[in-house]
Amino acid sequence: VLTAGVQSSLNDPRLFISYEPSTLEAPRQAPALTNLTREELLAQIQRNIHHEVLEGNVGYLRVDDLPGQEVLSELGEFLVNHVWKQLMGTSSLVLDLRHCTGGHVSGIPYVISYLHPGNTVMHVDTIYDRPSNTTTEIWTLPKVLGERYSADKDVVVLTSGHTGGVAEDIAYILKQMRRAIVVGERTEGGALDLQKLRIGQSNFFLTVPVSRSLGPLGGGGQTWEGSGVLPCVGIPAEQALEKALAILTLRRALPGVVLRLQEALQDYYTLVDRVPGLLHRLASMDYSAVVSEEDLVTKLNAGLQAVSEDPRLLVRVTGPRETSSRSETGPNDPPAATPEVPKEDAARRALVDSVFQVSVLPGNVGYLRFDRFADTSVLRT
């Protein structure tokens, strides 16, 4: 009753009240990772961080628990040499946070900094801590060990309904920076730090968020806490990686599509005086939000028609069957041979009826309809 009342009154599902008579004392914090030996730290890091290079030269980095600043400083060189360097040569990166339910706030700048272009520092978040009544600003690092991931390479973040806390903050920051496309499910909407507090001397405990992200990156002061991070492309978590790879395949093809479109306009568009403006528009468009063929077609048509003021200028997606039939002949190839006119009268009549519709309307009005121009061989029949 207390939990339902508190959650509904404050509209905050993160608040829980529990009764635990077997608990003799308030739960203690887990021992700090820095108390572990270097070998123990390495073993834990290797359990929580997995990487590989997928087909198509796509880097894959799965993080299930984000270590803090002290651990990352201690093991930074190992991570750069054995993980990050293997991913630097990839053409795009998938950051999998579907199984990341927590981590340390101090680790956030490390993840963001390696994906933030250039050596300029950027204010990405401000964390308010209620017990100490203090705020801490989070900035990207001015320098990193090794290299940063190129800003020209796409990054996709995978999320699930279990993605929580620090992982949510990372997904939110990268999305607001427009540095990554978030694919998967809406995240948990948890908290950066949840603590279980004993209520007085009783066996009742209150689970409560004690830290809060103030979210300076857009959103009008709104953050992911309580509501979660909404993905750019919503899809069940188990299908998120497959969808991400499909998006990256499309995005790899984007420069070639734009180049061929520019060439076609330059070689064939009859309104020659508008071609320079069209070419400039194609080159200057922001394609960062394009995640499907439909997105690309919509963006191209809106941009090209706005510049050309020509509704006939139209880009569309063709199906596989149509694509294969069109690819057999190019614009400079001779037209395909016209099918032979059948000799049988019934077949001839069927051919003519497929081209023309003829009838006499009331009032002795003749009606002739044709939906395409017929070849001369058909007209001679």
Q: What would your notes on this structure say?
A:
It is built from 11 helices and 14 strands. The chain is α/β, with parallel strands linked by helices and 381 residues long. The strands form 4 sheets. A 6-stranded mixed sheet has the order 2-3-4-7-8-12, sandwiched between helices. It has a 3-stranded antiparallel sheet with strand order 1-10-9, with helices on one face. Helix 7 packs antiparallel against helix 8. The chain is elongated and about 100 Å long. The model is unreliable at 323-329 (pLDDT under 50).
List the helices and strands and how they pair.
Elements: H1 2-10, E1 16-19, H2 38-48, E2 49-54, E3 58-63, H3 69-88, E4 92-96, H4 108-115, E5 123-129, E6 134-139, E7 154-159, H5 166-176, E8 181-184, E9 194-198, E10 204-209, E11 211-213, E12 233-234, H6 240-268, H7 275-284, H8 293-308, H9 320-326, H10 345-355, E13 356-361, E14 365-370, H11 376-379
Parallel strand pairs: 3-4, 4-7, 7-8, 8-12
Antiparallel strand pairs: 1-10, 2-3, 5-6, 5-11, 9-10, 13-14
Helix pairs in contact: 6-7, 7-8
